[in-house]
Design brief:
Blueprint lengths: L1 H15 L5 H25 L3 E2 L2 H8 L1 H14 L11 H6 L1 H31 L3 E2 L6 H9 L1 H5 L8 H6 L2 H28 L3 H21 L31 H23 L7
Parallel strand pairs: 1-2
Length: 280
C-alpha cells in the first residue's frame, strides 16, 4: 500500500507541475462565458433565483460539454502514466502496486475535476444561488412569467424531462457520479494502453469513444446507449415529460460500473503477461 501511495503522489506531482494544468482554468472560463454568465444575467434581470445544483447540472448535460469536459481531462492526462518510458517506476514498486497507485490517481483526479466544476459553478453564480430541495422558480416558472426571455434563451434551462422526472438533489448525485465514472473510464483506458505499450492507440480510442458517443446522443437512436456518454444525461432516459422510459435509469450506473470493472480485470490480466526487468 505504501508503494502504491508513492505512485499516486508522483502522478499528482507530475500533473500539478505541468503547464497543461492551466487548461482547467481555460475550461472554467469557457463554461462561465458560454453558460454561467448568461444564466446569471437572466436570473438577475427576472429576480428568479437558482438552486445551487442547477448551474452544474446544466453544464454537464449540454451535449457539447459532454464531449468538452472529458476531452480536457484527456489532454491533462496526455503524459500519464509517468512511468511510460522504460517502466522504471513499475520495476521499482512491483506491477500490482504500480497499478493500484495509478488507479487511485485516476479515481482521485477524475473526482477532483468534477468537484472543481461543481464548486466553481456555485461560486460563479454568487448571490443568484438559493438553497432548497426543489427545483428553482428560474427553472419552473420562467416560461410562464417571462415567455419572451425564455423563448430566446432556451439553452440556459434544463430539459423538461429532467425537471419532470427527478429531484434536484437526486439528479445532482446522479450526474456527479456518472461524470466521475466516465472520466475514470478514460483514465483506465490510458493505463491499459501503457501496459500493452499502445498508449497512442489508447488515447485515440478514448477520444473516439467520447466524440462518437457524444455525437450519438443526437443521431444514434437506441444505439446511443452502447456509448457511455449517453448515460451521463439524466433526462435522456425519459421521453420528455411523459412516463415512457427509453432506458432504465438504474441500468446506467450498472453499465458504467461494469465497463470500469472489465477494464480493471483487463489491466490486471495484461500485467500478468507483462515481462519487465529481471522477468524478461
Amino acid at each position: 500500500m505504501k508503494k502504491s501511495m508513492l505512485i499516486f503522489k508522483a502522478e499528482c506531482s507530475c500533473l500539478l507541475h505541468r503547464s497543461k494544468i492551466l487548461l482547467l482554468v481555460f475550461l472554467i472560463v469557457v463554461l462561465y462565458e458560454s453558460i454561467l454568465s448568461p444564466m446569471k444575467i437572466l436570473s438577475a434581470e427576472t429576480e428568479l433565483y437558482l438552486h445551487a445544483a442547477e448551474p452544474f447540472l446544466l453544464l454537464c448535460t449540454r451535449h457539447a460539454n459532454i464531449i468538452l469536459i472529458p476531452m480536457i481531462y484527456m489532454i491533462l492526462l496526455s503524459e500519464f502514466p509517468c512511468c511510460s518510458t522504460r517502466y522504471f517506476q513499475m520495476i521499482r514498486t512491483g506491477k500490482k502496486q504500480w497499478f493500484f497507485g495509478e488507479l487511485l490517481f485516476v479515481l482521485i483526479s477524475s473526482f477532483s475535476i468534477v468537484l472543481i466544476i461543481l464548486i466553481c459553478s456555485m461560486l460563479c453564480m454568487g448571490e443568484q444561488i438559493r438553497q432548497g430541495i426543489e427545483w428553482s422558480m428560474y427553472m419552473t416558472r420562467m416560461r410562464q412569467l417571462f415567455p419572451e426571455k425564455y423563448s430566446g434563451n432556451t439553452q440556459f434551462f434544463l430539459d423538461a424531462s429532467t425537471i419532470a422526472h427527478g429531484k434536484s438533489t437526486g439528479v445532482l448525485l446522479y450526474t456527479f457520479l456518472m461524470m466521475w465514472m466516465y472520466l475514470a473510464i478514460i483514465g483506465m483506458i490510458l493505463i491499459f494502453g501503457t501496459i500493452i505499450a499502445k498508449k497512442t492507440a489508447a488515447m485515440i480510442s478514448a477520444c473516439t469513444l467520447t466524440v462518437v458517443g457524444g455525437t450519438a446522443i443526437y443521431f444514434g437512436g437506441q444505439l446511443k446507449w452502447l456509448f457511455p456518454p449517453a448515460h451521463l444525461e439524466f433526462g435522456l432516459h425519459f421521453n420528455s415529460i411523459f412516463s415512457k422510459v427509453d432506458f432504465p435509469l438504474g441500468g446506467s450506473p450498472v453499465y458504467i460500473s461494469a465497463i470500469l470493472i472489465a477494464l480493471m480485470i483487463l489491466c490486471l490480466n495484461s500485467l500478468k503477461r507483462l515481462r519487465i526487468g529481471e522477468e524478461q
